[in-house]
Specification:
Length: about 350
Amino acid sequence: MKKIQLSPIGRQLAQWLGIGAFYLLSLFVFLRLTFPYDTLKQRVLSEFNQSQTDKRLEIDDMSGYWLFGIEADGVRLISLDRTVVAAGETAPPPDVLAIDNVSASVSLLSYLFGTLNVSFGAELGGGEMDGTFKQSDTDSYLEMTGESVDISGLTLLSKGIGLPLGGKLSGQLDLHLPEKKAQKAEGKMELAIVDLSVGDGKAKVRNTIALPKLSAGDLSLKAEVAAGRMDISEFASNGGDFQLSADGKVRLREPFERSVADLNVSFKFKDAYTSKSDLTKSIFGSPDGKIPGLFDMDPQVRQAKGDDGFYRWRVTGLLTHPSFRPGNKINAQPAASAAEPSDDE
């Protein structure tokens, strides 16, 4: 092979470029080896915990990740219960969201051109979540995927339901926020929970009754987002003990807690569950229907129940504080065609 002969000027330029590249590489290695990650960890913990009254953040270790990223191991978000416990009673354990590993990396090249581009990932519940967040002067983008995340570790979700949950969560979310406004959001969402279960036979409903574990089957959720409105095309599960279906829409707002729901929800407890024990028979009634259960003693619940055994509800209002109305015997329009809430709502 014929060797390339450089001119004296070319050799001098190559030498300068080599020295410059070696200097930059050495500087980067030095910064990575000497960067005070422990000090950064303490700074993050201090600022977060001082700004919260009901949560505490803990991190076991923090280090560098790729070129311009950071990763943290043993991350725990602890919800602090300020409820006063009576003398002689034991305080319930705090809710903990545990993440084995979380990482984030910033694209320096994108940042130089005025766009924040962050890639992130997390290992939790035996599964993985990863995605990217992009933000320019005008728009924001969020892409996120999850695979086989055990929802039993998502204590905040279980707390919202009021009972322990089980199952494996997978799915994806693609969201574009023009002008960085949720009211103008565009995108789609697809989620699935395999082997969804509710309760564990020990946790009590409203601190009163511990119901047997309920198998709800595989839950699927599909939704399209346009002009800030999330239209739910599929929200259903059908397990050995329980069947659920829902449709409707959610108007996205900022902050997310102000988002407005308008849904039709129907569910049914199957005979396999209602006849599982004397306790379930007393609560939901016997399968032959001759003996009514305590669950149907409430007038609204009784009104929501149809002859086919399904309970139908109209769910409207803020996501954080929705209202429930019996939907079985009222002439309610489908949620998808109901009157739109105004953007100022």
